[in-house]
Write a structure and sequence with these properties.
Number of strands: 11
Low-confidence stretches: none
Strand content: 5-15%
Largest sheet: 7 strands, mixed
Bound molecules: flavin-adenine dinucleotide
Structural class: alpha+beta
Radius of gyration: 24 Å
Oligomer: single chain
Helix content: 55-70%
Shape: globular
Distance between the termini: 44 Å
Length: about 600
């Protein structure tokens, strides 16, 4: 299993040199305590916990998996103790309000922490990760009374939470949800139905599990307009906040999965379980979606996590394993053969992984600042501020989730390839990374659904291309500002062309879609991938600009770090960014190139 080392130097580079987090935090109402020394201490401690406690449980957790017996789930050896340490460290409430027992830090700091946790052990990270989604939903939508009961134990990590959306007949199309909620005289509801694929739905880490459940009232209209949202605890809660009787929430099975095997994915039956409504009747889906932007960024982090983990494993191997001689001549003449890393094609794979890990991290650090402003709107009870930043973040969310998880999966595959046949063998842990990465493009909305969200909703319907115009405006400004700098001219001219093309493509697809609605679907994947490659290109150029500035100033103790940034950016522009051209070509083809074959002709013959 590759040993995990938290990429603290790269994290500091992005925080302090590229995105100026100290100034960003100083401008946030909840950012005053997040001074550079405190952030450094928090991230350093998180890195230690991830390297020393979580990473060593990653392979063993995968091999052992979760155990299911008589409705009870036991997590793999070591998980319970690691979770206790996680709770003791106060990690769950890092970015949640102090009034509930949290540390009140900005939301972004929690995201940076979760990247390290996820890279060290994604399966483990799922338990507190789903809880964050539940906490955010309760915090924003539940009554003060319910918040007082549920927020403190969730924030302290004494209880965990889940998100119960999916049912056997529907995952994407939640308008088909059947779970019933019957009102009771005391204001509570009896919840009845089956939810499947519920991450952290049952486990032995905490004494209670708080399910956030989508269900229908008896008189609810059909479809998405008739769904409400409920808190349903596994164990009822006594008046003093202690855990009471079982609430007829039954785990009937856990799934046997391709990856994230140490994360329990449960089938949960609600059998007249007592629940409490949060948000307004029939507005459950809207309430659930208000935090979707941040939940999806949390899943986008999984893309970087697996790219980073796979890169770290492959890099160590490529320096150690020897095979033949480099075509340009012997690189290590005193050795029997040159190390893999001397071969250009192996470099291609390693650099691709590095591009996705570090380029994706930059994209997340940028988006995390938008998310900070958005959550500040909630904390400050300022709806206008919340909506303004939610809109800004909304454009990037499907790009981050859709594109970065696909790239994480590619990087994980490249990791196996660098190991050759040994990558396919369990003991090295490289195949586990690829198996674990596979789910990231499926849950929290598949890549296809992210693509539809980006093109159909965020670009065409909500902003009529304005979101693209605004962001490409930033890219164009960067290009103009750096055109005269010989070190950056190539980045600047290339980006200027893509910025212009992205607008033209948006217009073309918009015009095509006016005549043929299917174009939104047929062009969506290509539009998403194009947007992802160009966005990452911008953030690589930005990193290269900061690095070349540092080198030009001189006096740096780490020229190698900055030179590596520039070399990697050049690789991205030479070898990865041109992929966008293929997507540009395909997105402007008529939908009939996908629809002309009749359903009856899809046959095996
Ligand atoms: C390990 C794991 C953990 C999970 N954790 C949770 C959890 O904690 N809580 C929870 O509620 N759910 C969870 N899920 C469920 C997950 O979110 C869904 O599986 C996912 O949203 C996809 O839904 P589906 O499986 O029903 O696929 P479907 O909706 O049936 O989609 C099948 C395919 O059709 C495509 N498709 C569907 N509709 C359209 C359309 N209109 N246009 C174009 N393409 C379309 C999709 O992109 C996909 O490729 C989990 C699933 C797994 C496997």
């Amino acid at each position: 299993m590759p040993a995990y080392k938290a990429p603290l130097r790269d994290m500091r580079f992005l925080m302090n040199e590229v995105f100026d987090y100290p100034a960003h935090y100083a401008g946030l109402s909840n950012g005053k305590d997040a001074d550079p020394d405190t952030c450094e201490a928090i991230l350093g401690e998180a890195a230690k916990f991830c390297e020393e406690v979580l990473a060593p449980l990653n392979l063993s957790g995968d091999l052992e998996g979760c155990h299911f017996e008589n409705g009870k789930v036991t997590t793999p050896k070591g998980f319970k103790e690691a979770y206790e340490q996680f709770v003791q460290g106060g990690w769950q409430g890092l970015s949640h309000p102090t009034e509930y027992g949290g540390q009140g830090m900005p939301m972004s700091l929690g995201l940076l922490k979760s990247e390290m946790m996820g890279t060290a052990n994604w399966s483990f990270t799922m338990y507190p990760g789903l809880s964050l989604g539940a906490m955010n939903t309760v915090m924003q939508h539940a009554s003060e009374e319910l918040k007082a009961i549920y927020m403190p134990p969730l924030t302290e990590g004494r209880w965990t939470g889940t998100m119960c959306l999916t049912e056997p007949q529907c995952g994407t199309d939640l308008g088909q949800v059947k779970t019933k909620a019957e009102p009771q005289a005391d204001g509570s509801y009896k919840i009845t139905g089956t939810k499947i694929f519920i991450s952290a739905g049952e486990h032995d880490l905490t004494e209670n599990i708080v399910h956030i459940v989508l269900a229908r009232l008896p008189d609810a209209p059909p479809g998405t307009k008739g769904i409400s949202l409920f808190i349903v605890p596994k164990m009822n809660v006594n008046a003093d906040g202690s855990v009471g009787e079982h609430n007829s929430v039954v785990c009937s099975a856990i799934e046997h999965k391709m990856g994230i095997r140490a994360s329990a994915t449960a089938v949960i039956n609600f059998e007249q379980s007592t629940g409490f409504m949060i948000a307004k009747p029939n507005k459950g889906l809207e309430a659930m979606f208000t935090f979707m932007n941040t939940a999806r960024i949390g899943t986008a982090v999984q893309g970087i996590a697996h790219a980073e983990a796979s890169f770290q494993g492959a890099l160590a191997y490529a320096k150690d394993r020897r095979s033949m001689r480099a075509l340009r001549g012997k690189q290590e003449p005193d050795k029997v053969a040159d190390a893999l890393i001397h071969h250009a094609d192996v470099r291609r794979m390693l650099l691709t992984q590095k591009c996705f890990a570090e380029g994706g991290r930059a994209m997340i650090y940028f988006a995390a600042q938008l998310a900070d402003h958005m959550t500040n709107g909630i904390i400050e009870n300022d709806q206008a501020k919340y909506e303004e930043w939610d809109d800004k973040l909304g454009f990037f969310t499907p790009i981050l989730k859709g594109f970065l998880t696909e790239m994480g999966l590619e990087a994980a595959n490249q990791g196996i390839q660098v190991f050759g046949g040994h990558g396919y063998i369990k003991e090295h842990g490289m195949e586990q990374i690829a198996r674990d990465a596979r789910i990231s493009t499926l849950y929290e909305g598949t890549t296809g659904i992210q693509a539809l969200d980006l093109l159909g909703r965020k670009v065409l319907l909500q902003t009529r291309g304005k979101a693209v115009r605004e962001f490409t405006g930033h890219i164009a400004k960067f290009a103009v500002d750096n055109l005269r700098d010989a070190r950056l001219r190539n980045f600047a001219t290339t980006l200027a062309k893509y910025a212009a093309e992205w607008n033209v493509l948006t217009m073309r697809v918009m015009l095509m879609a006016r005549k043929d609605r299917e174009v939104v679907s047929s062009a969506s994947h290509h539009f998403l991938m194009y947007s992802g490659y160009v966005t990452m290109g911008y953030f690589w150029a930005l990193q290269a600009a900061v690095a070349s500035e540092k080198l030009a100033k001189g006096g740096s103790e780490e020229p190698a770090f900055y030179k590596a940034k520039i070399a990697t950016a050049k690789f991205y522009f030479d070898h990865i960014l041109p992929r966008a051209k293929g997507h540009a070509h395909s997105m402007t083809k008529p939908s009939k190139s996908m629809l002309r074959l009749p359903v009856e002709s899809f046959v095996f013959e």
